[in-house]
Design brief:
By secondary structure, the protein is α/β, with parallel strands linked by helices. It has 19 helices and 14 strands. The strands form four sheets. The protein has a five-stranded parallel β-sheet with strand order 2-1-3-4-5, sandwiched between helices. It has a five-stranded parallel β-sheet with strand order 7-10-13-6-14. Strands 8-9 form a two-stranded antiparallel sheet.
Length: about 450
């Protein structure tokens, strides 16, 4: 195997007994890793000055002295730091324990049990390769994190970042579309932070689940005595965001009666507090977001067409995570680092089997769901890197119906039967959320409702 492959470690074997060094090298042939030999400390240091190694296997005692400790001390100063495995006679075990305290990965006693030797070398290699992969991901994070930490190397996310950069400098309204959990507020914050309004406030209000009266009070404020309990004047979000940005999250859930009042403010640039007749001038940029299909809502008379055209100056469509799976390793690494710092844990990465499981899942809750899963894994992790056993049981490809069952699963089914099962399983995966299920299936909500009725689901 080529030592350029991601699953191939570069190993340096150091032993002043040439025959023993060769035995160790030959024992590792079946593992496929590349191997170089050095027969004394000076030769080892020379090789380390010319080439990076993932793993160093060194005899503790060379030339009658514990030179393995000197080599370990040198290795610990290297960047990237190789994983060091000590080989020692039984009498020198106390010294090897010192080596563990100084950063060695483990030690192996002579005479070598070759199967055990291969096992320990493979463990050291996996740790080193995980470290190497994390360094690559960290470099990618630095490379892609130049715009307010928005993470994504996929073509879809690069287009999102490009559009957000371009629109930030203007005052044109922005409409951010995307499923729940895709990061719409993060994009809004990035646009604000790169605008001429960045020294003023970004004010957020979630329009979902608020009655007309509460939403009107929140947006426009009130004067003392406007209603029972209004004991003093209070400015609304529009006034609070003056000279800044107002982010109207989930604007598709705004009550119809409030849509007209919002439109009036956007057209006039003036708000009137509840209980007052005095208009107040505001200078606010509007960024809106929704997980709904506003154009369909306009056609169905559920959302005002004039308001729709007022807020959709520039539209940014955030892709669901299942459509940019190449970004999952990058996001995973970012969240592991973030959660490790948050909870004071040392988690150095995630192994390939676990990462593959995360890649196979369709993530109906998108980036927010991935973040929550990684947070739980970090909190409950028993080791210093995440493995398949740390993944919650519900993150399982066999249960992942969001992208549809396997082709084998459809053999013997009619098209109607396959469609019925796909819809049933997708509804189950989204906990009955019909809007989200329709998005995953790539059909309109009305089409989904009709099929649910047709198939009696």
């Amino acid at each position: 195997m080529s030592d350029n492959k991601q699953d191939t470690a570069r190993i340096l074997i150091v032993d002043d007994e040439k025959d023993h060094a060769q035995v160790m090298s030959d024992a590792l042939i079946r593992l496929g890793h590349s191997r170089d030999l050095a027969y004394n400390l000076d030769e080892a240091l020379s090789r380390l000055s010319r080439k990076q190694y993932d793993v160093i296997i060194t005899d503790l005692m060379m030339d009658g002295h514990p030179q393995g400790l000197d080599l370990l001390a040198h290795a610990m100063k290297l960047t990237p730091t190789p994983v060091v495995l000590m080989v020692t006679a039984h009498a020198d075990i106390p010294t090897c324990k010192t080596a563990l305290n100084q950063g060695a990965f483990d030690y192996i006693e002579k005479p070598l049990d070759l199967e055990y030797f291969r096992l320990k070398v493979q463990q050291a290699s996996e740790k080193a390769l995980l470290r190497r992969e994390n360094e690559v991901l960290q470099a990618q994070l630095v490379e892609t994190g130049g715009f307010e930490g928005i993470i994504g190397r996929s073509a879809q996310m690069q287009q999102v970042i490009t559009t957000a950069r371009q629109v930030a400098a203007s005052d044109i309204p922005v409409l951010i579309l995307g499923e729940s959990g895709t990061g719409k507020e993060l994009i809004a914050r990035a646009i604000h932070n790169n605008s001429r309004r960045r020294k003023s406030r970004l004010v957020t209000i979630n329009c979902a689940g608020l009655s007309e009266s509460i939403l009107e009070d929140e947006l426009f404020g009130h004067v003392k005595g406007a209603y029972t309990g209004a004991q003093s004047d209070r400015e609304g979000r529009f006034e609070y965001a003056d000279r800044g940005t107002l982010f109207l999250d989930e604007i598709g859930d705004m009550p119809a009666s409030m849509q007209a009042k919002l439109l009036r403010v956007l057209e006039s640039g003036e708000v009137v507090r509840l209980g007052s007749n005095e208009p107040r001038r505001v200078d606010v940029r509007i960024i809106s977001a929704t997980n709904r299909h506003l154009e369909e809502m306009v056609q169905e008379k559920k959302f005002r067409e004039d308001l729709f055209f007022r807020i959709k100056g520039i539209t940014i469509q955030l892709p669901p995570l299942r459509e940019r799976k190449q970004d999952i390793p990058l996001l995973t690494h970012f969240f592991i680092k973030q959660m490790s710092e948050k909870y004071g844990k040392t988690i150095d990465g995630i192994d390939s089997d676990a990462q593959n499981l995360l890649m196979a899942y369709s993530w109906p809750g998108n980036v927010r769901q991935l973040r929550n899963v990684i947070e739980n894994m970090v909190v409950l992790a028993r080791g210093n890197h995440l493995t398949k056993s740390d993944i919650p049981s519900d993150i399982n490809p066999r249960a992942d119906t969001g992208a549809g069952p396997s082709m084998d699963h459809f053999v013997g089914y009619s098209i109607e039967q396959a469609e019925r099962e796909l819809i049933r399983n997708t509804l189950k995966a989204t906990n009955g959320n019909r809007e989200q299920a329709a998005q995953i299936l790539g059909i309109g909500e009305r089409t989904l409702y009709r099929k649910i009725k047709e198939y009696q689901l």
